[in-house]
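Worked example (supplementary).
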Amino acid sequence: MPGILYLVPTPIGNLGDISTRMIDILNEVDFIAAEDTRVSLKILNHLDIKKPLVSYYRHNTETSGSQIVQRLLAGESCALVTDAGTPAISDPGEDLVALCAEQNLTVVGIPGPCALVTALAVSGLPTGRFTFEGFLAMNKKNRREHLESLKGEQRTMIFYEAPHKLLSTLGDMANTFGSSRRISLCRELTKLHEEIRRTTLGEAVAYYQENNPKGEFVLVIEGETAVIEPPTLTLEEAAERVRALYEAGTPMKEAAKQLAAETGFPKKELYRLAVR
Ligand code: SAM
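After joint prediction of all chains, the assembly is encoded as:
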C-alpha cells in the first residue's frame, strides 16, 4: 500500500505552538522532508526526535519531489516540514502536494501555525471574506500590476512582505488604494517583539520612514468600502502625506494628484507645499 504525505506545520516563532499531534506524526513517519534541514534539526532536537531527513527546497523540487513520491509509492510515509508555519502556504510544499495529487497519493494536512490566518484574526479588519496575495514580485512593474489588479477589491487583502521591501511596498499600496485605506501591520507574530499596528497606509508610510522595519511582517489591508469618508486632514497634513509618498518612491505629481482626489484640496497647492 502507498504511504501518506503529512503536512506538518511548525511554529512561526513560539515553540509552545507545537501540538501533540505534530509530535506524534513526526515520530511515526519513515522520513522527514525539510525545506532547510538545519532549521528543522533544531526543532527535531528540541523534541528529541531522530529521523532520516531529506531536503526539499525551492531549487530541488523536481528531483527531490520525484524521489519523495517514489518512496511514498513504495509504501513509506513522509512528514513535510518547512522553515516556519504551514507547508504549501507561500513555500515549496505546494509543488509536492500537486505531485502527490497527480499520483493519487493521500495527503493529510495537520492544522497548526500559519502567519496569514493569525494576522487576519488579530487585524481588527473584516474576516468574513478575504484574499491571500502572498509575496509581491521583486520586479517593480510586476508588483504595481499585481496591486493594480486589486483596485476595487472589496475583500480584506493579506500580503507577506520582507522588512527591506516594506517601505516601498507601502508606498505602492498607498498609491494604489489611497493613503486613508486601513491596514494592520502584524509583525513578529507569536514572538517576543510581537506588534500589531492598526493604522492607515499613509500613516504607515510616514511611520516606517522614521523607523527602520525589523522582523517578519504580514500586511492585512481593508478592502474597498462603498462609504466615502469625509476628509479629516488639514492642508498641511495632506502636503505631509504627499511628501511621505514621494519619499517612498511615488512621483511627486502623482502623490499630489492622489491626495487632491482624497481630500478635495487643490493639487497645485499640495504640490507647492510638499516641495517647499
Ligand atoms: N508557510 C508559512 C506560513 O504558514 O505562514 C509562510 C512562509 S513564507 C516563506 C514566510 C513569510 O511569512 C514571511 O516573510 C512573513 O511575511 C510571514 N511570516 C512568517 N512568520 C511570521 C511571523 N512570526 N510574524 C509575521 N509574519 C510572519
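Two points are worth noting when inspecting this output. The longest strand covers residues 130-135. The mean pLDDT is 94.
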